[in-house]
Specification:
about 325 residues; alpha/beta; TIM Barrel; eight-stranded parallel β-sheet; 17 helices; 8 strands; binds hypoxanthine; binds zinc ion; Ado/ade_deaminase; Metal_Hydrolase; metal-binding; nucleotide metabolism
């Protein structure tokens, strides 16, 4: 089964590139850039990864990324992850990036975006991994800041497939960003948003109605509202579910209690992703294997999840056909 899961062509639709920063690279970049971290060793960094909730995680996530300063750091970060993903049978990766978090530290937009662009080109050439970039807005920051960021990325418009919404969810409903998302749509960008991870089903509804998202990141709390489940099913909206993330951030206590089997039974279109693999205990293959272990799913279920991701990905139709053919062959 592990062999099957590894060779299954997996597309990852929900990943924060800053969340792929492994402790080893964090320490190496801290040294290279003269950044002081409150950790003496890689082991100490790992020991700190015991999160009470999303906010507790975000504190360390923003601290960790303080070692990223130069274009080469962003290139190394992304290449490091894409190489690991390649070894796990991942063929396509869509990465959220949080420019506001870097701008606030004085790192210019072009440094972040040029570094990631170099990695994306190399991944396509060296690893045959296709990628897409998602411009994420920090939902706990002012709407005006998001609008300014959207204007600032205009010269880089072609590098992005979509806009997204992340960071602390509770108390930050998506509807506040309706105008920003409307402008993004006018620029030809697709829309996705985190909703229903820690936040209530009403946030998922808002993301659908006010942000007009084509996918919902997480969305696992939709089950609390049967009418919403019906809407999601009717419209074929994909939920990008991140099993190990949900355990790590205490959305569920144990994977065996995760709503994934009930979401499937409800006829929803699901995909599996790793979210922040360096912080949540594993990449794509670990997430797939953990689901196999917890739910006993057979090959057909994993095939369907992999197919949903390929069908729903931001990629050229030629690439989609190629990956669909690879999936049919495996
Ligand atoms: O898991 C997450 N949830 C919300 N925002 C985030 N930003 C990085 N990771 C996450
Ligand atoms: Zn996420």
């Amino acid at each position: 089964m592990q062999d099957f899961l590894k060779q299954l062509p997996k597309a990852e639709l929900h990943l924060h590139i800053e969340g792929t920063l492994e402790p080893e690279l964090m320490m190496a970049l801290a040294e290279r850039n003269g950044v002081t971290l409150p950790y003496a060793s890689v082991e100490e960094v790992r020991r700190a990864y015991d999160f009470a909730d999303l906010s507790a995680f975000l504190e360390l996530y923003f601290l960790g990324m303080s070692v990223l300063r130069h274009e080469a750091d962003f290139e190394d970060l992304a290449m490091d992850y894409l190489r690991r993903a390649h070894a796990e049978g991942v063929v396509h990766v869509e990465m959220h990036v949080d420019p506001q978090a870097h701008l606030a530290r004085g790192v210019p937009l072009e440094t972040v975006l040029n570094g990631l662009e170099r990695a994306r080109e190399r991944a396509a050439r060296e690893l045959d991994i296709s990628t897409a970039l998602i411009l994420a807005f920090l939902r706990d920051k002012p709407v005006e800041e998001a609008m300014q960021l959207l204007e600032a990325v205009e010269p880089y418009r072609e590098r992005f497939a979509a806009v997204g919404l992340d960071s602390a969810e509770l108390g930050h409903p998506p509807g506040r960003f309706a105008e920003v998302f409307q402008c993004a749509r006018q620029m030809g960008l697709a829309c996705v948003a985190h909703a229903g991870e820690e936040g209530p089903p009403a946030y998922i509804r808002e993301a659908l109605e006010q942000l007009q998202v084509c996918r919902v990141d997480h969305g696992v709390r939709c089950l609390e509202d049967p009418g919403l489940v019906e809407t999601l099913r009717e419209r074929g909206i994909v939920l990008t579910v991140c099993p190990l993330s949900n355990v790590s951030l205490k959305v569920v206590e144990r994977l065996a209690e995760h709503p994934l089997p009930r979401l499937l039974e409800a006829g929803l279109r699901l995909t599996l992703s790793s979210d922040d693999p360096a912080y949540f205990g594993g990449g794509m293959l670990d997430n797939f294997a953990a689901c196999r272990e917890a739910f006993g799913w057979g090959e057909a279920t994993f095939r369907q999840l992999a197919a949903n991701a390929i069908d729903e990905a931001f990629m050229t139709e030629a690439r989609r056909s190629e990956l669909q053919a690879r999936l049919a062959d495996c």
